[in-house]
Design a protein that fits this description.
By secondary structure, the chain is an alpha+beta fold. It has 13 helices and 7 strands. The strands form 2 sheets. Strands 1-5-4-3-2 form a 5-stranded antiparallel β-sheet. A two-stranded antiparallel ribbon has the order 6-7. Helix 11 crosses helix 12. It is globular and about 55 Å long. It binds a DNA duplex through helix 5 and helix 10.
Length: about 290
DNA sequence: GGTAGACCTGGACGC
DNA sequence: GCGTCCAGGTCTACC
């Protein structure tokens, strides 16, 4: 079965897929030119399906590799719209970016949207797993979670969806620590899953609740394992660009650009992009840094 | 509000 | 091959 999702223009699927490293983490797959990506979804009905998203005029084509009901197809369509952020209006950002040489090409190349996971829960878990580790470690931890707790794809059970909160909540710290190699992050992820599964928190509500950024940031920082960097990263994934995810790479890049390589703090990074207002985080994200 | 140490793992490095 | 050191953010305790 195939669906077509339309997107506000300009839209570039390769730009969305290559917007950050999510597509390198299971259960995502992609070609090296980022012309398509696949992922495995566990639907509300419990059905597990594989979807492939490729380029199409005005948006993207969604190929569903399994039989689904009309209700399930509608659910998949909504998920893909969310993942691709198809309705994002970047008019004011592009108007500003036209006057900045390091961002002048953003509009022409359709850059600006950031690939989201199907669920906010998956985005939060993966963000926690990017902290205090190398990228190879993040990939290993995500693979461990998917292999150990993911729902298998019928017909190809070696491939699995990202584990939903209730499935992960049934796990234990030792398994997460030893088998999935989460280390000290294990209790953070387990607590998050149990709170989400029990209804104590509702991360998916962030898709539709339009909270002011400071309030949303406060709620994200209240999650164990989510600090300044992770909160800023999640805010961007949720469509709030007024904070910068400052990690060691950001400190290096901003220092080289404006501070002659001298040691700086996150305050200097924020100050460097202050003029971008509500688009501060996106300007940082898309900035074309010197390669040196 | 700022700082120091602990947390955990993989990779780089020296022997 | 082995041991040591370091990088990578967050949490907690403390000032």
């Amino acid at each position: 079965m195939e669906l077509t999702v339309s997107a506000r223009q300009p839209f570039s699927l390769p730009a969305v897929i290559s917007s950050h490293g999510w597509v390198q983490l299971l259960p995502f797959e992609s070609d090296e030119n980022y012309t398509w990506f696949k992922t495995i979804l566990e639907l509300e009905s419990g059905k597990v399906v594989q979807v492939e998203i490729s380029e199409a005029p005005g948006g993207a084509r969604v190929s569903i590799h399994d039989e689904v009901t009309p209700e399930e197809a509608a659910e998949i369509e909504a998920i893909i719209h969310w993942m691709l952020d198809t309705d994002l209006d970047m008019t004011s950002f592009y108007a500003h970016a036209r006057h900045e040489p390091r961002l002048a090409g953003a509009e022409a190349s359709g850059r600006g949207r950031i690939l989201r996971c199907p669920t906010v829960f998956e985005d939060v878990v993966k963000t926690i797993l990017t902290t205090n580790t190398a990228w190879s470690g993040t990939k290993r931890m995500v693979r461990g979670l998917v292999d150990r707790y993911g729902a298998p794809l019928p017909g190809d059970p070696e491939r699995k969806a990202f584990p939903c909160a209730s499935r992960l909540a049934e796990g234990n710290v030792e398994t997460l620590r030893q088998e999935c190699k989460l280390g000290y992050r294990a209790p953070y992820v387990l607590e998050l899953a149990r709170r989400q599964a029990s209804g104590e928190i509702d991360l998916e509500a962030y898709k539709t609740d339009h909270l002011p950024t400071p309030e949303l940031r406060k709620q994200l920082l209240a999650l164990k394992g989510v600090g300044d960097y992770a909160a800023a990263n999640l805010l961007m994934l949720l469509g709030h660009y007024d904070y910068i995810p400052v990690d060691s790479w950001a400190l290096t890049m901003v220092s080289r650009e404006w501070y002659n390589g001298e040691p700086i703090t996150r305050k200097e990074v924020e100050a460097a992009f202050e003029g971008w207002g509500e688009w501060k985080g996106l300007a940082f994200w898309l900035w074309e840094w010197n390669a040196t």
